[in-house]
Amino acid sequence: MTITKAAPPRGDRRDVDEPRGSRVDSSLVLIMLLLVVVALQGPIREAVSTPVMQSWMTVFVAVVVQALPFLVLGVLLSAVIAVFVPASFFARALPKRPALAVPVAGMGGAVLPGCECASVPVAGALVRRGVAPAAAFTFLLSAPAINPIVLTATAVAFPGKPEMVLARFVASLLVACAMGWLWQRLGRTDWLRPPARPESEGLGKGAAFWGSVRHDVMHAGGFLVIGAMAAATLKAVVPASWLQATADNPVLAVLALAVLAVLLSICSEADAFVAASLSQFSLTARLAFLVVGPMIDLKLFAMQVGTFGRGFALRFAPVTFALGVLVSVLVGAVLL
Amino acid sequence: MSRQAQAAVLFLIGGALLHASFTDLYLRYVKAGLRPLLLVAGVVLIVAAVATVWYELRRPRVAKGKAAEDRSENQSGIEHHDGHGHAHREPRVAWLLALPILALILVAPPALGSYSAMRTGTALQKPWGFEDLPAGDPVRMSLVDYAGRAAYDQGRDLHDRQIKITGFVALDRGGTPYLVRMELNCCAADGQPVKVGLAGKTPPVLQPDTWLEVTGTYTGKQTRDPVNDGVIPFIDVTEAKPVPAPRDPYDEGGGG
């Protein structure tokens, strides 16, 4: 325990988030909440029986249910890194110079077989384990885009167009590394404001492991729910015909699909199939969809806020988006 | 949120996932292939809940000295019965996890239906190739298979054959009926419809979202989806009978 903790609770306690002076027992609140909802389930069901609400709920539940297994995978990996992998391992595994560690971490992303929900907690654990943030962020961006499952899905979705797989791989890796180097140049650690974590010193390995799992699921899961609500709102409310209007203009098309990727928050293992069906758009525009989507979308943004702090996410997300679009256009011009 | 409450939430999410994957509920939201992952995730979450309670019960003995020290530092006077003076609490955002639990257990929203289908353009893609039609008359085929052959193969093998396809009904603004099957690649968020127009002897009253088994023949009639300009082939209906919704309401697309 450090002296700073003993100081009057000020400033950076927003994530700790205990309402000042509140003595309400959260278990009790939870039980009351459940009871109220169960008692009111008739009216609630009726309220959500309109087609818009039904479709909203279906997409909302689907995004959460689909993402949870990958979130759990990421959370377990993150707990393993935090508890069982010694910090010295990463010091040895990654090159000393961050400039070199970035591309190594980028390629390392190829081995995490999952979608983006898994990579956020893992990247968080890497930073806490002393990995250079630049390398950890490169991993965060590259892992969901270039792993074998995602690339295979892309090949299946674009039959007869292997250049699409290559373009996705190259563009994603380029953006990930560029972001890593950019962070190394300009990034400031005081932007990173990870929320307080449970004290794991002095605990047994088991307690530390499950403490980390519990914390990450509650935390990232809460933000995942926010992202899922946003994605469901888009899917259920915004008419798809708006997109059609932008397809004919090459510049607008790229931007429109990049924005769509952010808003839709589709799992990176499935986005290739959606991109394939957006056949009225140019291949470059669809490449932008595939490059931007796994790196930054509503769900990811919410989870990044939760893992690294708002100051970080507000700076990191727009730059990632801009770089993603730019690199997609360049790679698209060369390869497609 | 106290650790007990967190354990309860973890347990409920895990339980909801297991409930969804042991019944066919999960098929409304994600593709069938995700089931093993859902089961594992459900078990892990429940174990995490049990472990949380377990370590919480053991904690007072193990960390008594430390807890006392923490408590003296905890000047804001927050004292929970579970507290042991942890300086750290999970943020309020964790409460949102109650939403999907309630939605899944209490409401269990239906699979995507006609509302989503008519808002989204048809996702019909040119198939890689066409296998020979199976024998039988009428020949039973998937709606997506029929649509692909009718739109991109000029119905070559389809002439003179009775065809049976199943899907749900959706009506466009003008009242034209379509038979639709949603294609799913991962979860319902990427669900996209494949539409087949109904011509010929369509039933006089068609209720959106009812499942129909349509028997009919190939027709060259086609139209364009107003949403994305995709091709919508038609089928000449000879008989349409209502059927219960299939176990898996989606067609698993992606050719994989």
Automatic annotation (TrEMBL), chain A:
Its main location: membrane. Pfam families: ArsP_1. The chain crosses the membrane at residues 27-44, 56-87, 99-122, 134-158, 165-183, 217-238, 250-266, 312-335. GO terms for cellular component: plasma membrane. Keywords: Cell membrane, Membrane, Transmembrane, Transmembrane helix. Residues 10-20 have a biased composition (Basic and acidic residues). It is found in: Cell membrane. It is a multi-pass membrane protein. Belongs to the UPF0718 family. This is Permease. It comes from Streptomyces flaveus.
Automatic annotation (TrEMBL), chain B:
InterPro entries: DUF1980, DUF1980_C, UPF0703_membrane_permease. Coiled coil: none annotated. Residues 66-86 have a biased composition (Basic and acidic residues). The keyword Transmembrane applies. Keywords: Membrane, Transmembrane, Transmembrane helix. Residues 65-86 are annotated as: Disordered. The keyword ATP-binding does not apply. The chain crosses the membrane at residues 33-55, 93-112. Residues 157-250 form the DUF1980 domain. Pfam families: DUF1980_C (PF21537). NCBIfam families: TIGR03943 family putative permease subunit. This is Membrane protein. It comes from Streptomyces flaveus.
